[in-house]
Design brief:
about 290 residues, alpha/beta, Rossmann fold, 10-stranded mixed sheet, two-stranded antiparallel ribbon, globular, binds S-adenosylmethionine, transferase, SAM-dependent_MTases_sf, EC 2.1.1.85
């Protein structure tokens, strides 16, 4: 299907006026009272036939174009025009700017021979569309595991995006005893759940790369996210790539807030990979974290 208009949305959500009222006053932030959705593995065969995926292309860089679907919160959650409903839906149906910043930074580090995904195990945390994880697969990763808060996002968007970008290569595993999907020779799996307990499902093998874009906006979840990373990263040579805005106005999180937590803990070191000041939002950054 032909591309429609440029395919990603700049956030209103984290601009100077927050779109979700309950976080407008950072001092009054409370953990969401709604219980999180269940933690579960989603299978590649579980794409609902009722969802129209509407594929369009996203230009990442000269020579690199990926495909993404467009589904809305009304279709998937029955919510009209919601960027985010704390504790219920965490924004995974939108393509956020940071995920493209992240892919560009990865591409640059590959071109500079700093990293390679060949044969590596990758976890994309808070994946939404999953384009960074799909990029890692296209670059030869041996396993990519996608995690999102909402199983619906994985079923209606991440899995169809994977199928669109790797046509004919991805298909559900034929083994009924296996949870994995096979994408050529790579292992691809999908996990839904809150960062506080999704590690119970993730294989404890240690990921060579953990990728995440626009995941550090909410102060309430930063510690759980960091704990998850510490549990899942391969020691000592695993690497985390994090794309995020420096500050998320109105919600209090941001790359710097997350990094202060990392620094305080003392286990990992961080280095700035890219700073993006294109005027489309406040300053965005890509950081690399390694075990000291
Ligand atoms: C703003 S979206 C970013 C989506 C995607 N990475 C992108 O850049 O387009 C934030 C993502 O973080 C995940 N997320 C946020 N809070 C979470 C939590 N407490 N537990 C698990 N996942 C969470 C959601 O899955 C959501 O897709």
């Amino acid at each position: 299907m032909a591309a429609e208009k440029p395919s990603f949305e700049t956030f209103q959500l984290f601009s100077t006026t927050s779109a979700f009222g309950i976080f407008d006053d950072p001092s009054s932030q409370q953990p969401p009272s709604i219980p999180p959705p269940p933690t579960l593995e989603v299978h590649a065969s579980q794409v609902p036939s009722s969802i129209n995926h509407n594929v369009e292309s996203v230009n990442i860089d000269d020579g690199l174009t990926l495909l993404k679907g467009r589904v809305n919160t009304q279709q998937v959650f029955g919510l009209s025009n919601s960027d985010l409903v704390p504790g219920k839906y965490e924004g995974g149906l939108k393509l956020w700017e940071g995920s493209l910043d992240l892919i560009r930074a990865l591409l640059s580090d590959i071109k500079s021979d700093f990293i390679s995904f060949g044969g590596k195990r990758v976890l994309e945390v808070g994946c939404g569309h999953g384009l960074p994880g799909i990029f890692a697969l296209l670059e030869g990763a041996s396993a990519v595991h996608f995690q999102d808060f909402n199983a619906e996002v994985l079923r209606c968007l991440t899995i169809p995006n994977l199928n669109a970008n790797l046509p004919g290569k991805s298909h559900p595993s034929s083994s009924s005893s296996s949870n994995s999907t096979i994408c050529d020779k790579a292992e691809v799996r999908f996990f839904a759940g809150d960062w506080s307990d999704v590690d119970k499902l993730l294989p404890h093998v240690g990921y060579d790369f953990i990728l995440m874009a626009e995941t550090v906006y909410s102060i309430n979840s930063l510690q759980n996210l960091y704990n998850l990373i510490k549990k899942c990263l391969k020691h000592p040579d695993g690497v985390v790539y994090m794309a995020a805005k420096k500050y998320y106005f109105g919600v209090g999180g941001g790359s710097r807030r997350f990094l202060s937590l990392v620094e305080k803990d003392g286990m990992m070191s961080s280095s700035l990979v890219a700073e993006i000041t294109d005027g489309s939002s406040n300053v965005r950054e890509v950081w690399k974290l390694c075990v000291k």
